What we know:
The protein has 18 helices and 25 strands. It is an alpha+beta fold and 544 residues long. The protein has a six-stranded mixed sheet. A hairpin with a 6-residue loop joins β23 (527-528) and β24 (535-536).
Amino acid sequence: MSKFRKLMAAGVVTLAGAALAACGNNSSSSSAGGGKKTLNWMDKTEIEGMDVAKVTDATSFTQLNNTMEGLYRLGKNSKVENALATKTTTSKDGRTWTFTLRKDDKWSNGDPVTAKDFVYSWRRTVTPSTGSQYSYLFSGIENADAIVAGKKKPNTLGVKAVGDDKLVVTLDKRIPYFKLLMGFPLFFPQNQKAVEQYGKSYGTSSKTTVYNGPFVQKGWTGSNLSWKLVKNKNYWDKKNVKLNTINYSVQKTPSTDYNLYQSGKLDAALLGPQASKELKNQKGYTLRKTASTIYLEMNQKKAPFNNENFRKALSLAINRKELANSVGGAAEPADTLSPENMTEVKGKDYTNLVRGAATKQFNTYNKKQAQAYWKKAQKELGKKSVSFSILTYDDDASKKGGEFLQSSIESALKGVNVRVQSIPKKTALDHAGSGDYDVFLMGWTADFSDPISFLDLNTSKNSQNWEKYSDSTYDKLVAESKVTPSETTRWNDLVKAEQRIISTQGVTPLYHPEEAWMVRSTVKGVVYNGAGAPYNFKEAYIAN
Length: 544
């Protein structure tokens, strides 16, 4: 995720007890007060929105993954499982997909869920006036690129309903990861009546959203830090939904996190740096690998960030191992943009194919080389000094990350002055999306388990390319990877593209987060996937 933007805060977050109390249940889910059908859970950052066409962050996608449902649901290890689709057939050339839908699913407003809801949803998302930052993921579906570019009408999109229970999708070309895409919330259906009823307010609160998934959301007003997920009585598979309630809370203060867990007010707690080290051998300690990368986006519409040598100087001034240790969890220093353990190519991890001269030269701490590139940049820019600010979220770990970068850069590069600007996530995303920033400390979680999720993001015309990186060689490699019929050629193109963006420092990878949690041993059946919408609570339960 993950911009999703599956944008991630750069570390852990927690909540003061008063906000947690607002969830409506302060007692442990395994106690008499909470009951065995109630789970108290947390997330790192607040919800951005609940409109599948418009959200971009991991927290929101997780909410959608549990309150909405599409053709498929992703199980453990991103295994594709039938959801609303009961049968799928594919043409020999891989370009026509026909989905037979179940007839017993309803929206929370009582309307039946039909194939027409998918057609409406997809057309709305690719319509330019909707403003979806994720519409580029429809590329490959017939006419999607032309519609997004405003050259064709939305009703020409390669999707049609045949009656209420048959959906036919036509592709411009075979998409290797198409099934994984169909499990991502962006491709879920939308209820036209509700979208039109609420207008611009649709998806901005629990009350202005309708649901067709295992749970319905209650109590989110659009800005508060606590809400509930309640079992959906209209859900087609409600017999397999074991929890009645999930009390959700956002946490931003690591000092209280583990205390809330110990006192029974949370059933899971995301740990800070010190707690991660102290509790690693304790019962309930859980390490979650994320298909994520925290990196720096530099606004290349501005000087000095449009200077490649300056970008290289900043990258080489950062000790990634020390940065990873400072933000907590079990973060690993990043020398590639794509994370490890996400994609395997012919028995090898994809990142092993990427590693080489570029990653070693430009994503490794080297103070002497950093100063050499800074001297080159000074000459090219005609300046001896520069000042800029690093934009971060306002959670504790993001602030720590920003402060570490400030200290590292200023100590290595004489004449470079850095200020850290830490603000709430929504505000930070607004600034970054409008180009109103210098450098943004942000993260991306893969939408699905393929490096194209990271590489497509930074092509010149991508709506989420906020840093405005533009490189014709890079663009060509990414584009060719999408059309080649050869799997070997595809992987070669992706590897070369990733090496290219690193060698030009289009973005600056810093670390791959691995989250350290304490999870109560009675909590079972929670599905976690590092890519996409991370958590699936459909079959979660609390054991006796």
